[in-house]
Structure formats: C-alpha cells, structure tokens
Amino acid sequence: MVKITDVARHAGVSPSTVSYALSGKRPISEETRRRVEGSIRELGYRPHAGARALASSRSNVLALVVPLRAGIHVPVVMRFAVSVVTAARRHDHDVLLLTQEEGEDGLRRVADTALVDALIVMDVQLHDARLPLLRGLDRPSVLIGFPAEPAGLTCIDLDFKAAGELCVEHLAGLGHRVIGLVGSPPEVYVRETGFAQRVVQGFTAAADRNGLSSSVHPCEADPAAARQVAERLLRERPALTGVVVHNEPVLEPLIDAFEALGLRVPGDLSVTAICPDELAGRVRVPVTSIAIPAAEVGAGSVELLMKKLGGTPVPQATLLPPRLTVRASTQPRP
C-alpha cells in the first residue's frame, strides 16, 4: 500500500507538504502542487478516509434520510437513492443511508457527530417536525420535497401540483367531463406528505377550472384495493370516462379491474398516471403518463449540496416542470 511518505519521496517534498496539497489548509506553490499531484497519480496513492477527514475537517459523506414509512413505494424511493449515490461519487463523496423513522432525534444524532458533512432529506411532510432542526443545523441540508412553509430551506422536487393539473388538462382536452383521481395509500394523506397533497391540489384546481365533475380516492397498494376503488368509482360516478392514477403498484391492477367491470381502456375509459416512464411503458395498455424524474431530482439535490458546502449561494426552491408522454391509454371521450 502506497503511503504519504512514498508520495513525498517521489515528489521530492516533505510529507507535510503532501498533506497541505491534499487538504488545502496551507498555501503551496502551483509548481509543487502539480508535482505532488503527478506523484499521487503515478503511484496510485489514495488517502485514508479517516486521515483525509482529520486533515480537511470533512468526512466526504452525505446522509440520505429516507424513513421507510407505511405507504411508501420502495422501488421508486430506491431510484432516488441510486441517483444520489451516483452523483455523490462524482464529487468523491459517499452516502450514509438512514431509513429508520426516528424523526428529529435521528437527525440530531447524526448531525451531532462528525459522520456526515451534509444531509438530503426525503418524504417531506407539509408540517414536518424535522424542519426546525434542519433550519438550525450548522451543516447544510437539501429537501427532496416541499413543506407548506419552505422559507429558510433548500428544496427540490417535481412540481407535483402542476403534474396533477397537466393530467386533468390532457383529459379535459380530449372531452372528458367526469374524472377521478386514484391516489396514494390513505396513510400518506394522513401524514400530509407534501407530494401527494400537491397532486390532489393540482387535480382539483384543474378539474374546477375546466368545469369537470371529479373526486379523489386514496387506495391501498394492492390489487384487492384497486378492485374496490374501481367498483366505488363506477357506483358513485357511472358517467366516469377519465382516471388519473398516482399510486404505482395499483396502475395495472386498476386497469384490469375496470376492464373486468366492462370498461375497455381506452375505448370506454382514458387513464393517465404519474409514475416512472418504465412502468407506464410496460403496462399491458401503455399508459399516458408524467414521469417521476428521480435521476434529475437526486442528482440535483447533490449538486445543490456541493454548492452549499463550497459557499456558493443556491436557489431556495427548484421545481422541475412535469413532462407528459401520450401513449395508448387515452383517447377522445366516446
């Protein structure tokens, strides 16, 4: 294993000079820095993580806080996590994944140690109990999601309110007048999770603006619940011709349930969804959808953190506009 003394000997400098070149704690000449960096590359030297942290007062570790609460769809969450990890590695940072539902106490335990340089927080609620602590931390944070009052925080996410509106505008443009939203599991709304609430806000606002008859139906993430919701929708709204789905696990079971009840998609019923493109494209009837940009949001959260760690000002709010892809599941009202 190559040691710092080997690098120093190869570059013709002292070990402390190599340390200064790595940490930037003291100025050295550009010519010396280039010589040290050349020796590091040639010898394949990798500083020990603990020593590097001591030298720079940085751990080069980010915390990704993803409490795996009831109602969370883990495959989509993992898309965000993979994107964060990939982007962090481009900046020579590792990621500590925190999945326990510990709220403020869990954040404080991590923040009070030298384990991480900064935090990315997911599953943000409108009135999240973690916000006062995040506002007062001595290390930067970025939220993937928006609380009701985002002042003093740095937030990034898909514009879910606009996504709900865009789905309704698409259905209204096709002439549909009676529509329903099959939403997230009930516990997600009980917690006032931000993204789910904003889809409802956008859906309802666009339906009212276009003079449509609409209703919202939370749905547990299983096929039996999808069948029950389909039956209830048709019982309460027999003229239903359009549905928006914001619940990835029930997308295909819901289409199956409506067809079992005598409605063909898209002949009798147009279906749109807010879900990953891969899911929308592989359903038996490919679904018109708004993509969840996990890769963009995850990478964007890391870029915001890196700027904050470097002392560069960043926008408080970054909302990604929704993009709707038309597929086979929607057509003009029969």
Explain the overall architecture.
- The protein has 334 residues and is of the alpha/beta class.
- It is 46% helix and 16% strand.
- Helix 5 links the parallel strand 1 and strand 2.
- It starts with a helix and ends in a 9-residue tail after the last strand.
List its salient traits.
334 residues; alpha/beta; 6-stranded parallel sheet; 6-stranded mixed sheet; 16% strand
Describe what is shown at a glance.
With 334 residues, this protein is an alpha/beta fold. It is built from 14 helices and twelve strands.
Number of strands: 12
Order of helices and strands: HHHHEHEHEHEEHEHHEHEHEHEHEE
Query: If helices are DSSP runs of H or I spanning 4 or more residues, what is the number of helices?
Result: 14
**Alpha-carbon distance between the two ends:** 72 Å
Radius of gyration: 25 Å
- What's the rounded overall pLDDT mean? 90
Apparent shape: elongated
Structural class: alpha/beta
Fraction of residues in β-strands: 15-25%
Secondary structure elements and their pairing?
Layout: H1 4-11, H2 15-23, H3 30-43, H4 49-56, E1 61-65, H5 74-90, E2 94-98, H6 103-111, E3 118-121, H7 131-136, E4 141-144, E5 155-158, H8 160-173, E6 178-183, H9 186-190, H10 194-209, E7 213-218, H11 223-236, E8 242-245, H12 251-260, E9 270-274, H13 277-282, E10 288-290, H14 294-309, E11 317-320, E12 324-325
